[in-house]
Amino acid sequence: MDVSADRPGALRCSVVVPVYNGAGLIGRCLDALAQQTGIQPDVYEIVVVDDGSTDDTAAQVRAWIERHPQRRCRLLEQPNGGPAVARNHGAQVAQAELLFFTDADCAPVPHWMRALLTPFAEPTVVGAKGTYLSEQSGIVPCFVQAEYEDRYRRMAGRATIDFIDTYSAAYRRSIFLENGGFDPRFRGSCEDQEFSFRLAAKGYRLVFVPEAQVVHIHDAVVGEYVRRKVGIGFWKALLTRLHPGRIVEDSHTPQTLKLQMGLVALALAFTPPALVSRRWPRLRWLAGLPLAAALLFLATTVPFVRRLAERSPRLALAGPPLLALRAAALGFGYLAGTLYWTRHHERHQRQRRASLVPSRQERVEGD
Q1: Is the dihedral of CA 17, 23, 26, 30 positive or negative?
Q2: DSSP string, 268-288
Q3: Strands (E), the chain
Q4: Distance, CA of 225 to CA of 218 (rounded, Å)
């Protein structure tokens, strides 16, 4: 397929933007999409899906469309169903061969669309993933940006990947629809990861495009960061039930993160026995276990903290406690998710078995 962006006429890509209560953000995103360079404005469309917002998001989008009549932009509205449902809705009505995804809190850079178009000149490419940028200067958002850049280093140079985030993503629409799109069970996070894992397992080629950048608004304070990581951990529990092989490795997640989660869990688990052991001399050997786990954890943070130090000494000092909070939050969320999805599965199985057993009246009538 010819995806050269400078040829006018045919619609080449549809940009799907889900939004929920994003009245203060959606205009920034749409302005950025309207300022794309190296591509004619008549060869792409913008599809905004309002996922049951309770603020004036829809009114803001309508006003933007009225101010930009020369842009192909339309608004879809639906009851709140989560980002997976919203993105699938947008994909269903999109008219172009290529689906691009970004989020309402993202502002794609001027060359974003051109960069995402480029790999699809290769017929074997089915999906592509871009990257985050940040203009924030606080400790927490700088730490978040460093996290992502650490993962981008892991992906750099790979001929194919298995992990695409929808803040900067592209798919061939036909393949997206043939494979059912995003799983609507994921209402908070990880639906994009699950879909890319599903495609990669089928042998489709997904590629990393670091030039496809979007400026994101990262978590500004520790509380926001921890809540988001707990949520990711919760949905990761469902993700790993569906794709257990990805527990071992994927192209995005550093192996040290899994080790850190285990070490923080051990440190927390060993702390109560260590405190109790002070009263019983025979158990005093337990006292050193939390410290040993903590020291091992600190050792695993050294390479990342060194990279933080290249940015600023303050960020490097904040690195170990933030990494510990990350590991604890992800672990707690994963544990909660594992318990929830296990109960959910057991309840579903009981209901299924009950539906297969005829009632007493049905047995009598059958006799």
Answers
A1: positive
A2: HHHHHHHHHGGG-GGGGGGGG
A3: 13-19, 44-51, 73-78, 98-102, 106-108, 125-133, 168-172, 205-216
A4: 9
Report if pTM > 0.70. Answer: yes
The C-alpha atoms of residue 235 and residue 333 are separated, in whole angstroms, by 8
Spatial separation of the C-alpha atoms in residues 362 and 67, rounded to whole Å: 64
List pLDDT tens digits, range 247-273. 888 888 888 999 999 999 999 988 887
Q: Where are the domains of the chain?
A: 13-220, 255-355
Compute the 3-state secondary structure of the chain and give helix, strand, coil in percent, each to the nearest 5.
55, 15, 30
Rounded distance between C-alpha atoms, residue 300 and residue 258, angstroms: 11
Distance CA 76, CA 80 (A): 12
Q: What is the pLDDT of residues 309-340, one digit of tens each?
A: 999 999 999 999 999 999 999 999 999 999 99
Burial (CB count <10 Å: 0-12, 13-18, 19+), residue 365: exposed
CA dihedral angle for residue 129, residue 135, residue 139, residue 144, rounded to 10 degrees: -10
Q: Is domain 13-220 classified as CATH 3.40.50.10490?
A: no
